[in-house]
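Sat 14:20. Reprocessing the chain from the morning session after the first attempt stalled halfway. Input below, unchanged.
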Amino acid sequence: MASGGSSPQVQPCHIFGVCKGVRNNLLFQDEETMIFPSGNHCVRYHVLQRRTKFIQGVKGNMKALALSPDRRYLAVSESDKWGTITIFDLEDGKCCKKQVLKGSDYSVQEFVCMAFSADSKYLLGQAGGPTWTLYFWQWQEKQLIDSVKTTRNGLISQVSFNPQDEKQICVSGTRTFKIFELKKASLRQANSYNKENEDVLCHTWLSGDCIVAGTEAGKLLKLKSGQLHQLGRPYERQTEKKDSTSSPDQPASVTAITQYSKGFACSAGLGLVCLYEISNENDNYRKTAEISIPVDPYSSQPLQAIATMCFSPAEKTLVISTDRGKLYRISLTSTEISESKKAQFEFLSHSLHSESITGMSICTSKPLVATCSKDFTVHIWDYKTNSLEQFKEFDEEPLCVSMHPNGLSILVGFSSEIRLMHLHYDKIRTVQKFPTKNCTECVFNHDGNMFAAVNKKVIHVYNIRTGKKLDLNAHLKKVQSVKWSEDDLHLVSCGMDGIVCMWDVLTGSCTSSKETDCGYADVIFTPNTGSVHAVDRCSLKEIHDGSILRQMASDGVDYTAISMTRSGQTIFIGTAVGTVRDIEYPFGKEKTWTEHQAHSGPITKMVVTPGDQYLLTASEDGSLLIWTITDPEGKTLKWIKGMEHADEVLCTKEELEEKDQTICELTSHTEWLKLEMQYKLNLKDMDWTTKMNSIFQGYLQQIEALKDQIQVLNTEREDQKDSHQKALTELKEEHAKQLEDQKHSCIEGLLDKDEMYYKLQQKMQMMEKNHEMQLRNAEDSHLCAMENMKQAYEAKLQELRAELEQEVKNSEKKQVRIKEVAESEVMELCRNYEHDLQLEKDGRVKAELELKLMEKNISRYLKMKRLIEDQEDTIRQLKENVQKLKDQLDDATERIEALNKKKEEKNKTIDEQLCFIEELQHTVQNEDMSLEDKQEELVQKIFLHKKGEEKKSYKERSKINRLEKEIQEKKEMLDEAAAELALNNRKNEDIIYDLKEKLKSNNTELFTERQRVRNINMVVQKMKDDIRSCARFIQEPMRLKQNFIELHTRHIHTQDGTIGVDAEVTEEETRYLKDFHTILAQEKTMHARDMKLEKDRYSKLLKERGFLINQLYDQKLKHEQLLNSLKRKNVQCDDTAASSVIPLGESGLQSSANLDTRRGQVFASDRVRFPSINTT
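Finished this time. Tokens:
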């Protein structure tokens, strides 16, 4: 019955250990976070921060893991009654379940391996025996696409998707290596490669059509484009011999393989990993590095098989897991791998237990816990920092362990004896042995002076200070557990005989409970009550004074361990299925508990730390789980007090003396190294000064030669500038002449057009005048005729009245005819005028088009001319540059030879100068000595002089004066020499600085040359290696010939001869080209500016022309107005004449109206049809 109460609760905090039986049990989520199964949990472990996060939701025993290529989804295969696959979303903060695929829907008990497709949409699940069916899911929709049976006999070890085609699947296992394809929603076998005698243990996809697989016989197989090839065995070409501890009879199976961007990595037997990289375009792979797991020569199992390998996302780290539950890592950027040396793995975080944990004990003064295991090791852990403090591997199995309360010693029981061992800061050392064999349980009392040890059914109590031993013998069968009371006066023990004994340590008396059918597994004291709690296979019992007070059944689960908080409120029980039950104490009426998933195997030991902060549980699966104890709200318990732990470590006098001695040796060694380094630096300074002086002289001559070259180049540039300037001036003059010619031609054409227009206007005026004269003459003649007719009419009015009407009609017809003739003449004149104007307009348009075409043709001609000239210049310059480069190459070789000779001469001159400087220094020192001697002589003589001035003669005074002069001269000589020396030093410093700069450039050139030589040497070395590898086929002529042909095609190929060009020459050439382009750009801008000025002038001329045309148009309008006024006057005269001759009637009115309308139409049409002149 599982329910929650108000008692303290536990939550998993950290775990030490890895599940060995899980397929693909090591994964990278990111560059610093690992995913692996531990206990009955799947955890995310941050390597740098040592922080563990548990993925909640795993219930059954884990069988396999799979991570999607985008590192978002984690698939976990579990097996209980039926197999299930649970997919977790890792990007979610709580790692919630995304989907659950139940094996009960397909009658599958377990899924042994899984794989995601490249787009993470599809999932493969390989079921175990006896069916061995492969299931293909679209897992997000929980849709089974198809299933297929992969094998009949044997095991399937791995399935995978093609990274470029999710419809292609590879399956490998015992005598199985198959390719399946999904066609029309059904899985069909595409290829099968018979491996009757070989088991394919692992494989990986290198590309969409290439797979590399490893076999149990240690072979590497490559499947490329449907063809199967053998790559040989990885261990055959090892560069170094294997360790002497490795057994030659043991097969070097390829148990794990994985790919990365450069190639692939595979295991090569026990404790060895080989890295392969692609070598050429034929997809051949060569071994570049070997990485081994460090071997402990004292270990009972020195070599480990590699189970899983994986690269970090950035491919900076390779991590592996072994069959013993150890995790190792190596940085792929290390020097050993880059230099193709033999490298070694290191622990991912620390060493872990690989077998069942049989003993566990905590320290009351420090946050330490000691564990022992069947892997022959004892580990000391820090449960606060989640780290391993110390561990030691023994030559026999430790059966139990107990930690001293001060944390400086441990007690370890073996089958032969019990050892008391001190925990030094860097090692564990045995200090005392106790002759108790087959000690399965040992425990210190609370002050550490005594301990109890179990030998089968006897309990031995040792006093460490006095050496006394007390034997307690009351059990009939093996004792399972022993615990001390708080006052260290009593012991409680339980055994397989179903008896719980309470012992008085002082007297050795025993109070036992009644014998039961079931053997007890563990027992504890209850704080503050004096009763004990014991667990057997089927129940929890509370015992007081030998009688059972209360019993609580386990509901079919076997109990294996028990512990209780110091406050006495909660009892924790470990079960045989790996779960932890917490029960509130005192017990209620109903049996209630809360059950937590903990380990994948039975819990062997469990203990609560001082202060009730943590619960520690150990299991047969080799894992150590740390739980935090909290209240129901998830907060720390109120009664927990902050405990201060001691930090002292154990250290002996001999170790301190050794440390002092090593410190003294190191200090003396450092001083000696300093002196040696100083001496080497001084030698290097002297060498460099000599070299710098020699190089300085050589570079001075080079500078002079370069200055001469620069002067020559400057003169050439000036000549080029002058020639270019002359060419530009000529081009400008030609262009100006062409523009002037075009301008004159345009002006002449405009003047001709204006003259033509003026002539046409004059002709029109003459025609208008003639027309007016004709009209006047016609009017005069008409008037005369009318007068004659009037006279005749008056004379013959009475006689010819009938004829008058006929004459009137005839006169009207004549008038009509005259008008029609006049109108036709006027219309012809207008048409001719319009035709002339249209011709003039068309001519003007043609002239403008011709001008535009001429301008375009001129611009094209200029562009073509410039392009041709530029091309000729570039061709000429390229020829000159090629010739110059050849000459400079010859000069460079000659200069190098000359510089080498000058370098030797300068070395000689520098040596001579150094000898001269040393001689000068010797002379200066001698002069100093002589000056001091003379000063002493002078002082003595002055003293003698003061004593007897009267006795001194003239010669002595002269001698003193002479000595003083000599001293003064020597001082002046010394000052001059010092000044000259200082000047020489300054010059040398400047020279050294310049030479250092030049030396840097020379060093870069030397580096490039050395790199080239190194590359050539590498190619030669590769060729030698390939030739050596061909020696293996010396007994097979055909393969030998084929390999030599491949070598010939790989290494011997023609190379195009190219002329090396000095970098400085090319830079000068590019600089000249840049200068030339800048000058051209400047000339182009000048030319564009001149063109703009010419366009402005041309626009001014056009404006003036428009102004003249407007004036002409105004004159023409005035002329038209005059004509219209004259025509109106003529029409009025005709009307008066008609009215005077003919009586007013309808016919006369109609004829005059028609005449007026026709004239109006004629003149209106003349006005409308007059051409409009475009002033623009």
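The first helix runs from residue 335 to 338.
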